[in-house]
């Protein structure tokens, strides 16, 4: 037994044999501060560090292979550009109107508050609220009996004064004969002549009272002063009405014809005055709030005589027949005044116009199914189409869908818009099948002023 010495103490180690003296290459015994051995394997650590460079080489090869594949794909894409599906329509020709727009207020041609001109009890009402009435139509009746009594009294007074006048004229003739025969005095004759003139004046007063009583009877029957539409009734039958009442019985508004007052900027005044001076009858159209439905069409009547300095606008008045009652007093409408009409203008859908740093342009499809950028000068906007003053010819195909992916020289494939049944890749020259939600069509023909 071989003793193990730790410090100054010598103790025998259990189980120690002579074979323990041999130290192998894989084990190294190190004495710690507590005397316990610690073991490690330096050979295994060296093998792990040898595997790291191999892994790095494999990862680098994979990365280089992927980069090379992407580069080859990019080169192939440059050699063979992708074909872009687009929708294209031909530029058409159409008469386009130049409009001046403004927000107008509908005003009745005449507005009348119907009031009683006499005091009395309202006996009957002969109209319905909202009814269209004609001029002179009976609207209401006020109790006429007090005025009939006044008329009777005036007629009786006149009959008495007439008989007194007749008697006075006979006496005047007698006094005249006596004076001519020197049987009567001149003073008596003059007095009788004055009495006759006095009675003649009384007779005129009586006639005036009769006319006044008859007029009161006429006023007891209230009639419509103008033709138009009656509003809501303000007084019910049975109430006492007075000539001094402020509200009146009802309000009548004349709606046929009707007018619209709208402002325009003063910058448009020179062109407008030039048209007015020539005697041209300018057409004015009224549209709803969303400018989609045309409510009525009329003519410009007049211009105001001054410009509003606070807004820099001038007021215009247009007259509309309003036979279908589409315009209502105090209604707000969008007004478009047709200033002039441009004949056979080149037009394209508004979706074809692109805007960039260089201005407005369109993508024109050439015969080899490639597109080119064409700068254009935009003219008049009308609904969903735009007129092109220069830069485009009639019949040239312009892209209206898919332009956001195009560049100069891009290869395209023509397709029909959604909702059509035509063959893919075949354009529709007249634009008759283009009724998709995203693509407005170009009408083939239109009437004067751009209205179809």
UniProtKB/TrEMBL annotation:
Residues 257-339 form the Multidrug resistance protein MdtA-like beta-barrel domain. It comes from the Bacteria. It is found in: Cell membrane. Residues 151-178 form a coiled coil. Residues 110-253 form the Multidrug resistance protein MdtA-like barrel-sandwich hybrid domain. Keywords: Cell inner membrane, Cell membrane, Coiled coil, Membrane, Transmembrane, Transmembrane helix, Transport. Residues 150-220 form the Multidrug resistance protein MdtA-like alpha-helical hairpin domain. PANTHER family: MULTIDRUG RESISTANCE PROTEIN MDTA (PTHR30469). Belongs to the membrane fusion protein (MFP) (TC 8.A.1) family. Residues 344-405 form the Multidrug resistance protein MdtA-like C-terminal permuted SH3 domain. It comes from Geotalea uraniireducens. Its main location: membrane. Residues 1-43, 408-452 are annotated as: Disordered. This is Multidrug transporter. Signal peptide: none annotated. Pfam families: Beta-barrel_RND, BSH_RND, HH_MFP_RND, RND-MFP_C. The chain crosses the membrane at residues 48-66.
């Amino acid at each position: 037994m071989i003793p193990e010495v730790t410090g100054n103490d010598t103790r025998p180690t259990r189980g120690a044999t002579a074979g323990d003296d041999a130290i192998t290459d894989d084990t190294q015994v190190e004495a710690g501060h507590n005397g316990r051995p610690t073991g490690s394997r330096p050979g295994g650590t060296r093998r792990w560090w040898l595997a790291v460079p191999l892994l790095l080489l494999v990862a680098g090869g994979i990365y280089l292979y992927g980069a090379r594949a992407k580069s080859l794909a990019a080169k192939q894409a440059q050699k063979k550009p992708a074909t872009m599906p687009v929708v294209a329509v031909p530029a058409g020709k159409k008469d386009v109107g130049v409009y001046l727009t403004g927000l107008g207020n509908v005003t009745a041609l005449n507005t009348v508050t119907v009031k009683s001109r006499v005091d009395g009890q309202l006996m009957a009402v002969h109209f319905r609220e909202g009814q269209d009435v004609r001029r002179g139509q009976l609207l209401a009746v006020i109790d006429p009996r007090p005025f009939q009594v006044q008329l009777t009294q005036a007629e009786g007074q006149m009959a008495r004064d007439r008989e007194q006048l007749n008697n006075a004229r006979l006496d005047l003739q007698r006094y005249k004969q006596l004076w001519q025969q020197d049987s009567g005095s001149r003073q008596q004759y003059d007095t009788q002549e004055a009495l006759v003139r006095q009675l003649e004046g009384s007779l005129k007063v009586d006639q005036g009272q009769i006319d006044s009583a008859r007029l009161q009877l006429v006023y007891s029957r209230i009639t419509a002063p103008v033709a138009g539409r009656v509003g809501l009734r303000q007084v019910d039958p049975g109430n006492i009405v007075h000539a001094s009442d402020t509200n009146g019985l009802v309000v009548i508004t004349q709606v046929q014809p009707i007018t619209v007052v709208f402002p325009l900027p003063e910058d448009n005044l020179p062109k407008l005055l030039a048209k007015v001076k020539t005697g041209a009858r300018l057409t004015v159209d009224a549209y709803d709030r969303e400018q989609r439905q045309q409510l009525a069409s009329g003519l410009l009547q007049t211009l105001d005589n001054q410009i509003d300095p606070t807004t820099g606008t001038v007021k215009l008045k247009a007259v509309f027949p309003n036979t279908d009652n589409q315009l209502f007093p105090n209604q707000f409408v969008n007004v478009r005044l047709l200033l002039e009409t441009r004949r056979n203008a080149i037009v394209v859908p508004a979706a074809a116009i692109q805007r960039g740093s260089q201005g407005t342009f369109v993508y024109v499809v050439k015969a080899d199914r490639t597109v080119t950028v064409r700068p254009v000068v935009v003219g008049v906007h009308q609904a969903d189409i735009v007129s092109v003053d220069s830069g485009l010819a009639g019949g040239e195909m312009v892209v209206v869908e898919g332009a956001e992916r195009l560049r100069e020289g891009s290869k395209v494939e023509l397709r029909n818009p959604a909702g059509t049944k035509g063959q893919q890749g075949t354009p529709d020259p007249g634009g008759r099948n283009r009724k998709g939600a995203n693509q407005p069509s170009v009408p083939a023909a239109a009437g004067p002023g751009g209205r179809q």
